[in-house]
Design brief:
The complex is a heterodimer of chains A (about 270) and B (about 290).
Chain A lengths: L1 E12 L9 E12 L3 E5 L6 H9 L6 E8 L7 E4 L11 H9 L4 H13 L15 H14 L4 E5 L7 H18 L2 E6 L2 H7 L2 E6 L3 E7 L11 H24 L1 H5 L10
Parallel strand pairs in A: 3-7, 3-8, 5-6, 6-7
Antiparallel strand pairs in A: 1-2, 1-4, 8-9
Chain B lengths: L1 H7 L2 H22 L6 H13 L13 H33 L1 H16 L2 H12 L4 H24 L3 H9 L4 H39 L4 H10 L3 H30 L23 H7 L3
Helix pairs in contact in B: 3-11, 4-5, 4-7, 4-9, 4-10, 5-7, 6-7, 6-9, 7-9, 9-10, 9-11, 10-11
Classes of the chains: A alpha/beta (about 270), B mainly alpha (about 290).
Chain lengths: ~270, ~290
């Protein structure tokens, strides 16, 4: 388990061309989570969710503010990261991809990673190359890789967005089962509200411009399914929050209202 | 009968037909003029070179005109190619990673590629005279730019997403270099190595032709001076055989090994069936696990 504290996080990217201003992806984001929680960060595309995850993982450095991740003893936390695409080394076998993240090529590590491959239903595929697996299977390898480092904090960046609806549905159910079994601290980024409601114990809504808009606790029993009426009701409530967010944005900048229909679509 | 039918309707048949036809036309051409060597005369000559003791010493498997001259050229090309690999890997990789080094070396590499090997060969003979330095030097300057360009492109092609993934998992530099950097560049390095090896081999024999008293190039020049057409062609054939052997026995297996992770694995000039993609669906997996 991990403790994550983010205070006033700002991230600017250099302008795409010389005469344009810098692009601000995050604008003073405050966020905290700890314990056996599954938190989803939801917001429209381009609101800085993935940037935040990259900052937490150390891939990006913030322009301002600070992010601290520790394990529950206060030491440095181990992180697992599941990306949108599987990001596997195509020239290494499934088992070697897991060992690469683990940084351990001993026989003992082989047993350990095999356990996680079995957990995601890929026992028997360990000596295959990623090119020989389907997209869903590759994403399972990505999940097994993240779990195999036995992370204090598991980061997931829209892990099912590149998959077809049926495969995504199957993997969501599986992820829920794994989470119930392991109870890791999970920070999950998505723009799919229904997915967030199904999986999370808490949803943080980030608005366009990279600030927190709302923090909602989802108090529904697991396992949850997208067809559950309680899940659908919660989705409707959260979409109402999104509409309110959009209204406020239009009030602040009337040009957005004029451009309605051609701008960024709100998440569903 | 089935084997016979398979052979006649496979691409192997086409390849063997073209080889036999080539030999036939070559022999016919040789019969038309004494200035054209024939395959039989060439093979006979190679046999004679093999049975001719080297510079009056008693004959031995490694002490005849064929073996000694070939081994000398192979040794020179081997040393030159080792230097090519060492320098091109470091310079090419650094060019891809550090823009200042790229800016410093780009012009030099272009000059190296554009300047013909025979200019280098003549200069080297004038600078270093007879001996081993001139062929090794020219082999080095002819091969290095070829490999450098490819390594440079390879080092630029290391996928950013995989570098980020490695960063997020705190993969050590040693593991990253071995499992990410080298395999990312392998295709480029192998392609560059093939071109560099051919350029180096050609350059070494060229210097031997121009100014040396040993080696395959020198021996070809010797038979050229005596107007022995079979002799000239014989050494041409020996050089060709070495190039093909090197390509098929060393480079091709290395290229195949570097590409074995791809779905469509095919050898160069040889049809090999690619590995099949697993078609198991995620739902099947879920059912299998009782999910």
């Amino acid at each position: 388990m991990a403790i994550l504290r983010a205070e006033n996080v700002v991230k600017d990217f250099p302008p795409p061309t010389k005469n344009q201003p810098t692009v601000r992806a995050l604008n003073g984001l405050d966020f905290a989570m700890s314990g056996q929680t599954f938190v989803s960060m939801v917001g429209p595309s381009g609101c800085g969710k993935s940037t935040f995850l990259n900052i937490v993982s150390g891939v990006e450095t913030p322009t301002g503010g600070r992010v601290v991740v520790t394990n529950d003893q206060g030491g440095p936390a181990t992180l697992g990261y599941v990306f949108q695409d599987s990001r596997l080394l195509p020239w290494r076998t499934v088992i070697d991809n897991l060992r690469y993240a683990l940084g351990d090529w001993s026989a003992e590590s082989g047993d350990r990673v095999m356990g996680y491959l079995e957990m995601v239903g890929l026992k028997g595929f360990e000596n295959m190359y990623p090119a020989h697996l389907s997209g869903g299977m590759q994403q399972r390898v990505g999940i097994a890789r993240a779990l195999s480092v036995e992370p204090d904090l598991l980061l997931m960046d829209e892990p099912f967005s590149h998959l077809d609806a049926i495969t995504a549905r199957a993997l969501r159910t599986e992820l829920q089962t794994i989470w119930e079994r392991t109870r890791k601290t999970v920070l999950f980024v998505t723009h799919d509200v229904l997915e967030a409601v199904q999986l999370s114990s808490r949803i943080v809504i980030v608005e366009y411009g990279g600030t927190k808009f709302e923090d909602i606790t989802i108090d529904l029993p697991y396992p949850r399914f997208q067809t559950d009426s309680a899940v659908a009701t919660m989705q409707a409530e959260i979409l109402t929050v999104f509409e309110e967010m959009e209204r406020r944005r239009e009030e602040l900048d009337p040009r957005i209202a004029q451009d309605a229909g051609s701008g960024t679509e709100p998440p569903l | 009968m089935q084997r016979f039918k398979t052979f006649f309707f496979a691409d192997k048949m086409a390849r063997w037909t073209s080889r036999v036809l080539l030999l036939l036309f070559w022999q016919l051409g040789g019969n038309l003029s004494v200035r054209v060597p024939t395959p039989l005369g060439t093979l006979q000559f190679i046999g004679q070179e093999w049975s001719r003791a080297y510079e009056g010493a008693p004959w031995g498997v490694f002490n005849n005109e064929l073996s000694v001259n070939l081994i000398v050229t192979l040794a020179r090309a081997g040393v030159a190619l080792t230097l090519v690999v060492l320098v091109a890997l470091v310079v090419g990789y650094a060019m891809g990673q550090i823009w200042r080094i790229q800016a410093s070396f780009t012009d030099l590499v272009v000059v190296g590629i554009a300047l013909p090997a025979f200019i280098w060969a003549l200069l080297a003979v004038m600078w270093f005279g007879f001996g081993n330095i001139a062929p090794v030097f020219v082999g080095f300057v002819a091969g290095t730019p070829m490999l450098t360009v490819n390594v440079f492109q390879g080092s630029r092609a290391i996928p950013r997403e995989l570098r980020d993934m490695s960063e997020s998992y705190n993969v050590t530099f040693r593991h990253r270099f071995r499992h990410l950097v080298l395999p990312s560049m392998a295709g480029f390095v192998m392609a560059g190595f093939r071109v560099a090896a051919l350029a180096t081999w050609g350059a070494v024999t060229l210097v031997e032709w121009f100014g040396n008293n040993q080696g395959a190039g020198h021996r070809a020049h010797y038979w050229y001076d005596t107007s022995n057409f079979d002799g000239l062609m014989g050494w041409g054939l020996i050089i060709l055989a070495v190039v093909i052997t090197l390509d098929r026995a060393v480079l091709e297996p290395l290229v195949r090994k570097a590409r074995r992770w791809r779905g469509d694995i095919t050898g160069l000039g040889s049809a090999r069936e690619g590995k099949r993609t697993v078609e198991t669906s995620d739902l099947e997996l879920l059912e299998r696990d009782g999910g």
